[in-house]
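Re: Re: ligand-bound prediction request (bumping)

Still looking for help on this. To restate: I need the protein modeled with adenosine monophosphate bound, output as structure tokens. Inputs repeated here so nobody has to scroll up.
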Amino acid sequence: MISEEEARRKILETIQPLPLRTVSLSSALDCFSGQDLIARLPMPGFDNSAMDGYAVVASACRKGERLRVIGEQPAGVDRGIRISPGEAARIFTGAPMPAGADAVVMQEDVTRDGDEIVLNVGVDTGEFIRRRGCDLGEGQKILSKGERIRAATLALLASQGFSDVTIGGEVNVAIVSTGDELVKPGARIKQGQIYESNSVLLRSLLQRCNATVRSVENCADDQHSLTEALKRGIRYHVLIISGGVSVGEHDIVKSTLLALGARIDIWRVAIKPGKPFLFGRVAIPIAPSPQSSPSGKGGREALGEGSAASRNDCFIFGLPGNPVSSFVTFLQFVRPAVLKMMSASDGELNPTKVTAESDIDLHNDGERAHYVRGRLKNGKFQPVGRQESHALFGLSQSNALLRLAPGESVEKGAAVEIQLWD
Ligand code: AMP
Ligand code: MG
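Reply:
Sorry for the wait, this slipped through. Here it is.
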């Protein structure tokens, strides 16, 4: 058994980003930028009006003054108007400032009288003008390599004239749920059987990561079915197997993977829930790399040894079948790996963390890092539901995880760091 930190480090060292691709802005939400991007244009691109009103020369604008309106400057076209003291130009939001004007008075602050306006207020130089480049200068960095592309980032890219953007590769994932007891929701269930729920959980978590789930299968705990299901699953960048990775006679995932030529890098991690977690890799059969062992040749277990992963490897995550174990190990190990494949920067791999006040005394007297499921409300963290790995109802009521290191104690009222996922 290795520590959680060691497992995470090993996984992230092994996994490498997929080749970059260029997509239209409409397909890039929540993807990670493949490069640093620099502003092409200053923003705003020219001095323009922040209001519907009148462009004026401020020094000639005392309250009560009358100004002659000599023209109209709408947005979208520069009419080349020039004004002098005592004159005004009708202007609209976003319209370029006429030459000679150094302020805008909003229309609510004037009285229109035919070709003239009467000022109901005094005017200061620069009022209601949006200056060229005041928001963003040409050449300024607007997006860093590996940064997540948010809705506002996309709007900024569009405003800079970009129609597409280079992002990390698409990660294709297969899910195989194992267990003789599993029945698909919607079907009739017999005594002793349970409805299969992990694939729904994992698919949803993968969707949140923007990964593409290409295949979802349920598989019985028999060697033949499992071999065939895993052979289909290892055609993708990532194969996630639920269940069958523990130590019982029906837990045949590890031996089946080895028989398929997979290399097992990690098996069993000091994390609660989630101890039987497995991580390995195998050459993708359709495009085997010359160095990788061909599938079906008999595998070797290589815990602890270093060997570089190939671009053509399928990365395999075996998650314990208990739903909460699957959930916790997905968030701590699979999610950062998938994000790294998508070219996320190191800072983007971590879950959102906030500081909260613990609403209860907590202690971890075990040897494994314990992830306590709880609810963060009004700045306070309170565990919810049963803290056992099968307790899916409790998990469904929670929105945050508190990690207690082995031996760690937390007193009620103490400040704790909470991981948020919802
Ligand atoms: P395993 O890791 O295969 O030993 O399974 C551990 C526990 O998780 C057992 O109680 C299983 O019935 C349950 N379990 C396994 N796979 C799933 C699944 N896909 N959906 C819901 N529960 C599961
Ligand atoms: Mg099982």
